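From the pipeline queue, job 12 of 40. The input is one protein chain; the requested action is below.

Action: predict structure.
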Amino acid sequence: MNKLISALLAAAAPAVSPVPTAYPAAIESEYTDAATGIRFSTFSILSGHRGITDAAVQYTDPKRKQKSLNLQSKPSLPPTEQISEVYDHSVYSNAGTSIIGLKPSQRENDVFLVSTARGSSNTITEPKQISASLHISGVYNSGIAGLVKLAITGNASGESVYTWPDAKVYTAPETVPFHRDYYGAVQYVPYSTQVRQTDIYKQYYKSIYIREVQHDRGIVETVSSKAPKTIEYSIDF
């Protein structure tokens, strides 16, 4: 982590590398709906998130940024007291992201995929796609929010998009009453992300720039969020 932050500061831009992180195993959810008598098959997880374990984001706090520098020398002061540090920007980095609940939410954004007659097979004939965004609990500045999105989804938008391949074959066994219908949907998994803050200052001697100085503020926020994953399930009629 320290190497990543140092590289980020040197380049004055985020430096990240994607590391896939899988969701927990699919939940066994085969059941018969009491109201309709329809049998639902076990959910199949099609896509999880691709979080970035060493994500880092640069952010400038406008309340701390000085609009103009007042670095006039004061001859009466000794040289050591004529050194000034001026806030430049901050770096938020991922200090740890973990799942905080094993049970995903109820299904959302259901989309019909294909219907297959008993004892036969079928394929999707037109494009099917589903998308969902990361939900962050609480209000944070754009730097912290951006860091959490990268840490969990692997992209700056926090959005997950899944497109079904049209060549995938869907089957219905002889045991179904008439046909098996397949659907796609989204579920959300709760996550927690610890955010580390490093403040970067410009150091001057009188009005002469010397170097950048880093001040590690430690973990400043623990952010709760819900990450989307795409699932697939079937209903027998």
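Job complete. The first strand starts at residue 31 and ends at 32.
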